[in-house]
Amino acid sequence: MRTRVKICGITREEDAQAAVRYGSDAIGLVFYPSSPRYVAAAPAARIAAALPPFVSSVGLFVDATPGEVEAILAQVHLDILQFHGSETAEECRRYGMPYMKAVRVRHDTNLLQYAAQYHDARALLLDAYLPGMAGGTGIVFDWGLIPEQFPLPIVLAGGLNPDNVADAIRQVHPYAVDVSGGVEQAKGIKDAAKVAAFMQGVQNAAL
């Protein structure tokens, strides 16, 4: 099965269009004000509205209040929600929308327990753990910590870039990969050449 790709931390329309042009299946919009890749509702709405059919818009939240999430949903078309904080399964599903739950993986993380807890998630997004950071660490975690038999689709994140994504796919066999810093020229500003190289790496994994 083809590995899907999400380019996250999009802040500009031209970066979203470049991601689409090179074959990304989804773009991620970060609604976490502390992130250097934060995007406000108005530009996010323009980015999402310009996406072609069959490309998903993903909204990333970190311990946002229901009011904050609902305010974004009232202004921005999102296809799926991504929760990167300490949200419970009940908090993730309260909006009646498809969601992914991010898990920051450490050596003692029980991923099967997370899969059971968030059993109705469309996927678990597995990211590296770094104290004080909700994501976007640029660090690769030990992929050997992921159980071979996993009940939910896996979206693999954490330190992926054009050089290592093929190896990551061959080892983990994730449903999708998620990249942000690995295809940037500056935080929140994507590099089209790196996006193209990343997508080529994804394709090379199948060779």
TrEMBL record:
UniProt key word Zinc: no
InterPro entries reported for this sequence: Aldolase_TIM, PRAI_dom, RibuloseP-bd_barrel, TrpF_fam
Single Gene Ontology BP annotation: L-tryptophan biosynthetic process
GO molecular function: phosphoribosylanthranilate isomerase activity
Residues in coiled coil: none
Record flagged with keyword Membrane: no
Biological pathway: Amino-acid biosynthesis; L-tryptophan biosynthesis; L-tryptophan from chorismate: step 3/5
CDD domains in alphabetical order: PRAI (cd00405)
E.C. no: 5.3.1.24
Keyword entries, A-Z: Amino-acid biosynthesis, Aromatic amino acid biosynthesis, Isomerase, Tryptophan biosynthesis
Known catalytic reactions: N-(5-phospho-beta-D-ribosyl)anthranilate = 1-(2-carboxyphenylamino)-1-deoxy-D-ribulose 5-phosphate
Residue ranges of every copy of the N-(5'phosphoribosyl) anthranilate isomerase (PRAI) domain listed in the record: 5-200
Similarity field: Belongs to the TrpF family.
PANTHER family: N-(5'-PHOSPHORIBOSYL)ANTHRANILATE ISOMERASE (PTHR42894:SF1)
Name under which the protein is recorded: N-(5'-phosphoribosyl)anthranilate isomerase
Organism: Methylobacillus rhizosphaerae
Gene: trpF
